[in-house]
Amino acid sequence: MIRVANPEPFVEREDDDMIICRCEEITKGEIRRAVYDGMRTTNEVKRYLRSGMGLCQGQTCQRLVQGIIASELKVRPSELGMIQGRAPVRPVEIRTFSKNVTDVKED
Amino acid sequence: MKRHELIVIGAGPAGLSAAIEAKKNGMDVIVFDENQRPGGQLFKQIHKFFGSKEHHAKTRGFIIGQQLLKEAEDLGVRVELDSTVMGIYENKEVTVKQNGEVHHYKGDAIIIATGAAENMIPFKGWNIPGVIGAGAAQTMMNIQGVQPGSKILMVGSGNVGLVVSFQLLQAGCEVAAIIDAAPRVGGYGVHAAKLARTGVPFYLSHTVVEAKGTDRVTGAVIAQVDEHFQPIPGTEKELDVDTICIAVGLTPMSQLASNATCDMELIPQKGGHVALLSEYGETSVEGIYCAGDVAGIEEASSAMIQGRSVASHVSMKAGYLTEDEFESKYQGYQEALGQLRQGMFAPKNKGRNDFTETDEGYPISKTLLAHGYMTEEELSKFPAASYQKAGIHPVIECTQNIPCNPCQDACHFGCIKVGENITRLPAIDEEKKCTGCGLCVASCSGQAIFLVDETYEEGFASVTFPYEFLPMPKIGDKGKALDRQGKPVCDAEIVGIKKTPIMDKTAVVTMKVPLEYVHAARFYRAEV
């Protein structure tokens, strides 16, 4: 994949202030700008912006984010990959992690 | 670490069915579900299902859920609720959040049956309260007994949008409109028709462009779209609604498969990213399987069969079934699945819109696809829908090849024939006498069967139709007969109501209408 700085200035759009990732409050404009800044896959945009890293773990917004990246890059969403599923796939309180039950007798 | 021969993730229709099959074959199986109740989405489904007897057709979804739970309980399947699977690691180790602690389990095999999540579409104001998913609406109505709103805009005319719209009407809400960006109704025509005849308008090639309001929805702006699904300026229309319900499809919840390093692919016909599966449902990681919506969006009936099919493969691999036993079970499940996967709404036909006639060669109604109802002229092309005979007889307004045949079993006199292939349109046997019992009317999951008697009384006919609303009309009530698009056409008087246990709460109501309206009158509204 070749990445070069875009010589054209970033063009703002009317609906750039629309929230796309509700959990992390990421707007359409931020996602478009991330692509302008050189992000090329759903995973890259996630790491750059935290879109899809909130409470729902991208359940609601992943497809929307993909759609925006795809239309900016003029490619098919299937070429962008999905957010890599990572444990925990659901939000878990940090205190839960501190209670790691390893020593259990067979039941 | 606790070891089990099979770990099933998700206690919905696919997961429970898989666990039942594995347990029956003698396996040690444990099921995890993050919810407080098992059953997945089945308990929200208050409508009658399609299919044939072996697919639990004409049984309401939540009753199928109860039957499935009872079967699991009777077999002693262990279902751990409030147990969130956090991740799948090497060697099929699974971490589960239980009682605020992280517990480790290991499965010789794992079946991922995590189902699907709803899609959303972004538009101005889509994140203000009052914009909800159709699934949320169902949870509020059918689990919690709360109306999601009083005036609703439904976005999406697939089966979910249509079924939930009908349930909203049943819950006493007003459905202001059903819109879809596509130029055609996406779900079954019969689901659309039962909404249209109550007066719900359909706007195809329309999208929602704005939710009005600041801290809650106070209105919705819809607009017509061009062939690229872009709103056409100047076509905006504001609807007075307090809730916008989104039913624009589902996405498989496949994160766990991705986390388990299964090979994944975005397959639009399957609704999103899914694990690549063998014919037996196994992923690229040996011993990890997917079943149900997570493997590709279908519906609960096929999810239940898939669950059983996948679990039978697991049982064979674990030595609980011989290869022959597995082969015969597998063939049986594939046949049952094959029956459901036929017709114009089959998964393989998803996105196709080039059907112009039915398998029988009758022209498909364009009005049905554009407005949700059929014209009398279009119905006249279908023998069962335009059937005429002296005395009481059925009229079957079922005009698409969908996998369903309860009407055939409902008639004790063999008056209705679907045949081996359950996507065939029902045909009426003219030799057999109709007694007017109404069992076919109540058994039709699409509410598309009516009984008509042109010789009811001098100058009057009777029209019998299914009715699932409250308050129930009473004999002697007078009101208006509505036509297929919900417009009042004439005066009507209720002359019969049948409600027997076998009809399962679908009342069969008969109204008397002037003879000239017998082919138009299909619904009833009480005079207010």
UniProtKB/TrEMBL annotation, chain B:
Supply the SUPFAM superfamilies for this chain: 4Fe-4S ferredoxins, FAD/NAD(P)-binding domain
Q: Keyword annotations for this protein?
A: Oxidoreductase
Write one Gene Ontology MF term.
oxidoreductase activity
Short name of one Pfam family for this protein?
A: Pyr_redox_2
Q: Give the matching Gene3D superfamilies.
A: 3.30.70.20, FAD/NAD(P)-binding domain (3.50.50.60)
The 4Fe-4S ferredoxin-type domain is annotated at 424-454
The answer to whether the entry has keyword Oxidoreductase is yes
Q: What is this protein called?
A: Pyridine nucleotide-disulfide oxidoreductase
Q: Give the originating organism.
A: Ruminococcus callidus ATCC 27760
